[in-house]
Amino acid sequence: MQICQLAMSRRINEVLRYESHLRNIIHILSAHYNDKY
Fold this sequence. Notes:
Blueprint: H1 2-36
């Protein structure tokens, strides 16, 4: 039971980290796009 919870929280942390990484990329790209046009 506890192992399952640990794996679940670890996966959630990975997803959150991935999401924030994507948001940073989108932010950089949109800033670059706004600078160009």
